[in-house]
Amino acid sequence: MRAAGTLLPLMAVFGLGACAAVPGPSAIRAFEVPAACPVSAEAFQANDGLVRSRAALQAGSLTILAVGSSSIEGVGASAPERGYVPLVETGLRERFPGARIALVNRGIGGETTADTVNRLQTEIDAARPDLVIWQLGTNDMLRDLTVARVVSDFERGRDILDAAGVDVILIDPQRLPEDTRNPGFRGRNALLAGVSGTIAWLGAREGYAVDPRFGPMSGWAGLEGGGVGPDDLHLNDAGYACWAANTVAGLSGALR
């Protein structure tokens, strides 16, 4: 039996063979996933979306823009390459070695949903993506904003996304440790659970894919710190690897 801290190559987790090289100076290396990480594609909800992304992939090139706050930026990871966005890029390149796949990381720590929406058009114009990954809701709840405010800001963002003709994946907030020592975080999981349910509903309503995080994190007890770092907020390396592995499993299945 492997110890909880044992790491498995992503290829082994997904039943892949040797890592294939993509065009460029070097081969993509597998990232390692903690053995205690439950990896499954079942939580990922495609909601009949991702049409443009499938077509782009079949044409040989997929560009993904990732926006949101510190989880997208990678705060808490021990190195930039151990954050969520670089790991998802690596994982998708392993799953689709014949395509050129690029992820653009435009996460900014501390942002609310409104903050992201206010710069969304500029980010889309710069990256020209096929798919936008949008992580939202955490800072809104930590700042005592209402779910109604999140929905209103989301709808402004939806109008921008739909006008751009891009596919969308929504990502809900992370789960905070129940035994947190930060008094400002105590009791917040109820609020985070509520906005997570709203995000899932919005995704189904708009035909956007949803990659849930709050619910699946309840199964991360075997990870170091439950996947959360010493500040009781940002993910640690194990958390980012587990989250990325689940995104890759769900998204790659939905793109086939």
Q: Notable features of this structure?
A:
5-stranded parallel beta sheet; two-stranded antiparallel ribbon; 9 helices; 7 strands; 41% helix; disordered N terminus
Low-confidence segments, ≥5 residues, pLDDT <50?
Answer: 1-5, 14-29
What general form does the structure show?
globular
Largest sheet: 5 strands, parallel
Number of helices, counting only DSSP H or I runs of 4 residues or more: 9
Distance between the termini: 33 Å
β content, as a range? 5-15%
How many strand elements?
7
Question: Which structural class do you get from the secondary structure elements?
Answer: alpha/beta
Provide the gyration radius in Å.
17 Å
Secondary-structure element string? EHEHEHHEHEHHEHEH
Helix % is 40-55%
Strand order of the largest sheet: 4-3-5-6-7
Please state the average pLDDT score. Answer: 91
Q: Strands, helices and their partners?
A:
Layout: E1 7-9, H1 10-13, E2 32-34, H2 51-59, E3 61-68, H3 70-73, H4 84-95, E4 100-107, H5 113-127, E5 131-135, H6 138-142, H7 147-164, E6 167-171, H8 188-206, E7 209-210, H9 237-255
Parallel strand pairs: 3-4, 3-5, 5-6, 6-7
Antiparallel strand pairs: 1-2
Helix pairs in contact: 4-9, 5-7, 7-8
